[in-house]
Amino acid sequence: SGLVLKLAPYERVLVNGAVIENGDKRSRLAILTPNANILRLRDAIHPHEVNTPVRRVCYIAQLVLSGDAVPAEAKAQLIRGVEQLSLALTDHDSRSQLAAATEALLDDQFYQALKSLRTLLPREARLLAAARA
Predict the structure, then answer these.
(1) What interhelical angle do 53-66 and 121-132 show, nearest 10?
(2) Which of 49, 70, 80, 96 is 20 to 30 A removed from 104 (C-alpha atoms)?
(3) What is the pLDDT of residues 49-63, one digit of tens each?
(4) From CA 123, how far away is CA 67, in angstroms rounded?
(5) CB–CB of 99/82 below 8 Å?
(6) Which of 33, 34, 8, 32 shows the shortest CA–CA distance to 21?
(7) What's the N-to-C CA distance of the chain in angstroms?
């Protein structure tokens, strides 16, 4: 059991604050330590990209995983953020992902919460594009 990361050649991942770079071949890593903080750097949202509601909530979860935020404080912000998102994203799929994120947050599973929240990014982009049109 645990988290299994499949890494592309030279892909970087942050594990408990340490940047680890894969070698020249694909590989799999099994993270056996419960509650380890993991962040794929290819998935990381950079501070200048935090310009939408979903990105803001994802970024807070990311800060916990990178060790740059206190989990207890971030958890409260994340739960408030998910509640606010649920007011705007009312379709079944979004609600399902928001419920999964909430459940993960209640269990202090920030990686799983981020994973669920990231699925909302394409939907948010479509909604914002439609609103501009």
Answers:
(1) 150
(2) 49
(3) 999 999 999 999 999
(4) 28
(5) no
(6) 8
(7) 46
Token pair for 117: 């929240």
The pairing of strands 38-40 and 12-15 is antiparallel
The answer to whether the beta carbons of residues 7 and 31 sit under 8 Å apart is no
* Phi/psi at 51 (5° precision): -130, 15
3-state secondary structure of 43: helix
Tokens for 72? 């207890």
Q: What is the model's pTM?
A: 0.87
Q: Residue 65 corresponds to which tokens in the numbers above? A: 């995983």
Tokens representing 127 are 């909604």
- Measured distance CA(130)–CA(127) in Å, rounded: 5
